[in-house]
Amino acid sequence: MAKKLFLFLITFYRQAISPYKPPCCRFIPTCSQYAYEAVMKYGAVKGGCLAVRRLLKCHPFHKGGYDPVP
User: Fold this and answer.
1) What are the residues whose beta carbons fall under 8 Å from the beta carbon of 5, sequence distance 6 or more?
2) What is the distance between the alpha carbons of residues 34 and 42, in angstroms, rounded to a whole number?
3) Whole-number Å distance between alpha carbons of 37 and 27
């Protein structure tokens, strides 16, 4: 149930909010794609933790780059 909720929220963000923001993600894949893949692969708890860890790295002082879901 929580997995479906997280996936719905990520999809909602990607369709309703993200198109109105300028592209600024410094990672490949984007943070929302990473979160979606992590939750799909590992479930709500571990995937959510991986997504939060990735979001904490998303700031101007991090170099970014290619960072796939482990």
Assistant:
1) 44
2) 12
3) 14
**Is 0.85 topped by the overall pTM?**
yes
DSSP 17: I
Residue 54: how many CA atoms within 13 Å on its side-chain side? 27
3-30: pLDDT as tens digits: 999 999 999 999 999 999 988 888 999 9
Pairwise CA distance, residues 17 & 1, whole Å? 23
CA–CA dist 62, 58 (Å, integer)? 7
Distance separating alpha carbons of residues 11 and 30, to the nearest angstrom: 13
**What tokens appear for 3 in the block?**
């997995």
